[in-house]
Amino acid sequence: MKPHQLVLLAASCCSVLLASVAMAMQASPPKEASPIYGVTLPDGYRQWQLIAPAQEGAPLNELRAVLGNRTAIKAYQSGAQPFPDGTVLVKLAWKHEQSPEFESASIPGDATTVQVMVKDAKKYASTGGWGYGRFVRGKPADEAQHKTCFACHEARAKARDYVFTRYAP
Question: For the purposes of burial, counting CB atoms within 10 Å of the CB of 22, is it exposed (0-12), middle (13-18) or buried (19 or more)?
């Protein structure tokens, strides 16, 4: 092989290798979706704005924080109901424990779940326009748990577009 052919071959191999590396770096493993609804954990949700904290009593005994994407925050601030498509709410939950420093305070203990609600009136028409996801350690809970989501929201929060959480400005 002539020298200029070797240079062309090497350049071609480098181009293929660089393209393969770039594609591999961009590819991420597929997200696991909730059964029934196909909801996934949203990217960057831990940086979203707080909508409201809550404390759940027995038997769950949890501390909770509900976060919302920009669409959710705008809807809460303007009082828009029903919530617009594109609204995403994320509830973080932890077991609450007694603070070792302050006897009157509870602190987050073990994380229990991350729950997600996604508003898409067409896609989730049969469930009030909302899709649900419940995740434990980043993995979706089973189908039986997801079957309880809409029934609970329908029974208790239908008048508020199936959303329990009220904005805490």
Answer: exposed
